[in-house]
Design a protein that fits this description.
Blueprint: E1 5-6, E2 9-12, H1 20-29, E3 33-36, H2 38-46, E4 52-53, H3 55-58, H4 73-80, H5 87-92, E5 100-102, H6 108-113, H7 118-123, H8 128-138, E6 144-146, H9 152-161, E7 165-166, H10 168-196, E8 206-211, E9 223-227, H11 247-260, E10 266-272, E11 275-282, H12 285-294, E12 303-307, H13 313-316, E13 332-336, H14 342-348
Parallel strand pairs: 2-3, 2-5, 3-4, 5-6, 12-13
Antiparallel strand pairs: 1-7, 8-9, 10-11, 10-12
Helix pairs in contact: 1-9, 4-8, 8-10
């Protein structure tokens, strides 16, 4: 297995130019040659960073309004050839390796969301970018592919720590991220033009899998994944106390949050097995909780409870978790709220298994 790879030659061609000059300057610090195109090249030259124009590598100018820039035998070969078994052939063909590609794609989604017309959408379909990204990602054993400006900081830190080199682990991480990026990009384009044709289609992507205690039944295995492009997700909730969530907990949690989110004032929803046991709103949180519980106090046993306002201790004590007579204690599985007062949280922690 090839470990650290020194970045001696890098190709930078980005739509989102945030931080690109800082990354390029770090690469130059370790003697890396920078190859670049169009607008990216102008940004780097304005920052006084020496740049090799891509036409010096391809032997061809940019053409057709920028539709042809990076697609060439020279560029793709420099990314794809196996540095060990193909070294002689590459030398015979005059192919010099490229060790890093930094590329983010034409902003198709942003242009779409701005209401662009059909022709503008077509022009914002990136072809050369995904080709480079996929080529570099396939050959990650020897090439680093960077598609997200948010990764620049960590990459710079690693370059500085390793005298201009990146590890196998980092390159593998970047490879997986790159293939996810091109998959999401193509999915956005495909569904957009399906919509234009009047045919609704949907492509979903999920990641960040968390193992659950069990699935719908105790003998089943389950994982909880986050929708990659969701602005908000139950996946992101802060887990403050108790056992890990199960599949049924998450289903009920989603229903409880959906039920309580549009309530005005103080709101409370109680859900059991995806069925409502109680729903109430008002001005006093404790009274609202009591009213919701009264909706079906039998089914509320082992329920999931959601509040739409930070939970105070006075409300929490309705559960009687500290009652000497255990029959007075109300058993619930999960309580969720936008926040908890320290006193309320301490009180809820009296029940070691209650998820908060």
């Amino acid at each position: 297995m090839t470990q650290n790879i020194k970045i001696k030659r890098a190709l930078l061609s980005v739509s989102d130019k945030r931080g690109i000059a800082i990354l390029a300057r770090t690469l130059r610090q370790f003697g890396c040659e920078i190859i670049s195109t169009g607008g990216t090249k102008k940004v780097l030259e304005a920052a006084n960073i020496p740049v090799t124009d891509i036409s010096a590598v391809t032997g061809n100018p940019e053409a057709f309004g920028g539709r042809m820039k990076t697609i060439s035998f020279q560029i793709e070969s420099a990314l794809l050839f196996d540095r060990e078994k193909d070294a002689r052939e590459a030398e015979a063909l005059g192919i010099q390796p490229i060790d890093m590609v930094v590329c983010n794609l034409y902003p198709f989604e942003r242009v779409k969301n701005q209401g662009a017309h059909f022709d503008a959408l077509i022009e914002n379909i990136d072809i050369g970018g995904p080709t480079m990204v996929r080529a570099a990602a396939k050959n990650f054993k020897y090439v680093a592919i960077v598609t997200d400006p948010e990764d620049y900081h960590d990459i710079i830190d690693e370059l500085e720590a390793n005298e201009g080199a990146l590890s196998y682990e980092t390159r593998f991480h970047l490879m997986r991220k790159a293939f996810n990026a091109t998959a999401d990009y193509d999915a956005m384009i495909a569904t957009t033009f399906d919509e234009t044709a009047g045919e609704l289609s949907l492509r979903l992507a999920f990641d960040r899998a968390k193992p659950l205690r069990y699935g719908e039944n105790s003998h089943q295995t389950a994982f909880f994944l986050r929708h990659r492009h969701a602005e908000y997700s139950i996946h992101d909730l802060d887990f403050l106390h108790g056992k890990e969530l199960s599949y049924n907990n998450i289903v009920d949690l989603h229903s409880a949050l959906e039920a309580v989110r549009d309530l005005s004032g103080q709101g409370c929803a109680i859900i059991k097995h995806n069925n409502p046991c109680g729903l109430a709103q008002g001005s006093d949180q404790r009274h609202v909780f009591e009213a919701a519980w009264a909706g079906d106090p039998v089914s509320a046993f082992g329920s999931v409870i959601a509040f739409n306002q930070p939970l105070g201790k006075n409300t929490a004590t309705f559960l009687h978790l500290d009652a000497e007579d255990k029959s007075q204690r109300k058993f619930v599985e999960v309580i969720v709220a936008p926040d908890f007062t320290p006193q309320a949280l301490d009180y809820l922690r009296l029940h070691k298994n209650l998820r908060v």
